[in-house]
Amino acid sequence: MIKIKTPKEIKKMRKAGKLAAQLLDYLEPFVVEGVTTQKLNDLAEKFTKEHDAISAPLNYNGFPKSICTSVNNVVCHGIPSNEVILKNGDIVNIDVTVILKKYHGDTSRTYLIGDVNPQVRKLVERTKIAMEIGIKAIKPGKYLYEIGKTIEEYIKIFGYSIVEAYCGHGIGKDFHEDPAVMHTFSLDNKIELKPGMIFTVEPMINLGSKKDVITSEEDGWTVRTVDNSVSAQFEHTVLVTENGYEILTLS
Q1: DSSP designation for 148
Q2: Is residue 43 within 8 Å of residue 55, measured between CB atoms?
Q3: Right CATH number for 7-247 from 3.90.230.10, 3.40.366.10, 3.40.50.880, 3.20.20.70?
Q4: CA–CA separation, 230 and 124 (whole Å)
Q5: What residues in the chain have per-residue pLDDT under 50?
Q6: Residues 6+ apart with CB under 8 A from 76
Q7: What is the pLDDT of residues 165-208, one digit of tens each?
Q8: Nearest to residue 74, comparing CAs of 234, 237, 235, 226?
Q9: Among 222, 235, 236, which Cα is nearest to 73's?
Q10: For the chain, what are the domain ranges?
């Protein structure tokens, strides 16, 4: 059941989305060589509490931390740790979701640490572009599958692979709502876009040719590429408007 948000709900989602973006802005200067992902988690939790919000991932279905930190071949759901220290040449996706006055704001960015391999740097740049052009395909009256179709057409020319096991999602009072938002063309997404819909667009793109991923048996959360290739991701929360779209997770 896809929930059409009311003007009052949209106003609250704007505030939650803005705070999530501001959280990433706050973290950015600390995302450097030598920092632990646990330090980033602690900074995020402190910022969130200081802004009278809640970290949605913390204890969500048992997730043990306040943010996700996914380094190099980790596709998503990386768990912050004192043992994971960012190194020169790494990339790390930081995924944050805040709850502000009962509504969620969800966004992520992939950061480059120092001297990153040019091939990997290109992957990160193109993943961001893929998200942006997917968002630009949003317009009331169109189908949801235009997002995935647009992303897939752009990405395929580079020989990368798009993760299909994880996708975007509706969001509001609940962390995850309908619809599922695929980042490849899928008739499952033959859903007419209507003003008031809010969902995330968050493609996960692997440098390797294999789209398959595997979840850690040790922690039950960390998702890695099967071939150990590097993976990048960007995410925004987006509102369908009367004339197009509005990105809610901008600072």
Answers
A1: H
A2: no
A3: 3.90.230.10
A4: 10
A5: none
A6: 68, 70, 93, 95, 166, 204, 223, 233
A7: 999 999 999 999 999 999 999 999 999 999 999 999 999 999 99
A8: 226
A9: 222
A10: 7-247
